[in-house]
Design a protein that fits this description.
317 residues, alpha/beta, binds magnesium ion
């Protein structure tokens, strides 16, 4: 896979036509049959169509991994970055071009291992980014290596006798960071929930962190299999300010009222391992957003010359 940033110079400028979901597909996705990345891409395309985002007014930034091929497939500006570095690239882009909608797509190895430092600090900086963590519990692109989210005991090429350590939980970690403002979990096999979660994440002003549980039929075909076969093993977090999508109440009998403003409740729920939980764990739209706090008004060339002249005057002899 190339790690060369892709330049989509063939994007047409400012089309005023209404765009359908398929108009946001740049080229066919090259993932394995049954890969959960397809579902994530479909949900994203639906969101872009619903919001009628202009391809020239948004950017997708990724790191390295199967899911990081995303920018190649979305009709938008894209930056296929380097391993673990999607978040600083995206933060810089948002600071320089605040008018763009910036989406970030990372895998579990990418975000929670080599990119972990950036993940923690981007969460605290709270830039206005929509962040997708596609978590298949494995390094897929590099062919079946244990990642931080691989379940304990799971066998891989790097842990042939099974992963020895308990898995890192991305929700618990993010919820533990100061200024974390939006933390949600959804799953690629529940399209209505996935789409509604991305919609809420997009609307949130700040760092919207969405962990998408992602099927990888190639290397971790059974990690979510029980929950896929039996919806009763999944609990839906419901609230008027949470994720609400038609049909979900019929699919999932187990439901829990959870106010997304309740950080202690969110942390307690994230720690529990008795069921899979889907929904918005935490959301607060009032937290300081880095690109707004750091925003500087544009300076004209004339003003720059005046400032420079003043600086030179300080050294006049
Ligand atoms: Fe998807 Fe897994 Fe194949 Fe990668 S290896 S494309 S994550 S199914
Ligand atoms: Mg992975």
């Amino acid at each position: 896979m190339s790690s060369i940033p892709i330049s989509l110079l063939d994007i047409e400028e400012d089309s005023s036509e209404s765009l359908a979901a398929e108009d946001y597909q740049k080229r066919e996705g090259k993932w394995c049959a049954g890969c959960g990345d397809f579902g994530a891409l479909n949900a994203v395309k639906r969101l872009l169509a619903k919001e009628q985002l202009k391809p020239e007014k948004m950017a997708f930034v990724s790191g390295i991994g199967c899911s990081s091929r995303f920018p190649h497939y979305v009709n938008a500006y894209g930056f296929h970055g380097i391993h673990g570095r999607a978040l600083p690239i995206a933060t810089g882009l948002k600071l320089a071009r605040p008018e763009l909608d910036v989406f970030v797509v990372m895998g579990d190895g990418d975000c929670t291992s080599i990119g972990a430092g950036h993940w923690i600090h981007a969460t605290r900086y709270n830039p206005n980014l929509t962040v997708l963590l596609l978590d298949n519990n494995i390094y897929g692109l590099t062919k079946n290596q244990t990642s931080p989210t691989t379940p304990q005991g799971y066998k891989s090429n790097t842990s042939p006798r099974g992963s020895v350590l308990p898995a890192l939980d991305p929700l618990q970690t993010t919820l533990g960071v100061a200024n974390a403002s939006f933390v949600a979990q959804t799953a690629d096999w529940v399209p209505a929930h996935l789409y509604a979660t991305l919609q809420a994440a997009y609307e949130h002003p700040g760092f919207s962190f969405v962990r998408i549980l992602q099927r990888c039929p190639k290397f971790t075909p059974d990690v979510f299999l029980e929950q896929i076969k039996n919806p009763d093993l999944t609990e839906l977090l419901v609230h008027e300010n949470g994720v609400n999508a038609p049909g979900l109440d019929k699919l999932f009998k187990a439901q829990r009222q959870h106010d997304p403003k309740d950080i202690d409740g969110a942390r307690a729920l994230a720690q529990r391992t008795d069921m899979l939980r889907l929904g918005i764990f935490f959301r607060d739209d009032s937290f300081p957003v880095y690109d707004e706090v750091k925003a500087v008004s544009p300076v004209s060339a004339e003003e720059k010359i005046v400032r420079l002249a003043k600086e030179f005057d300080r050294y006049a002899v």
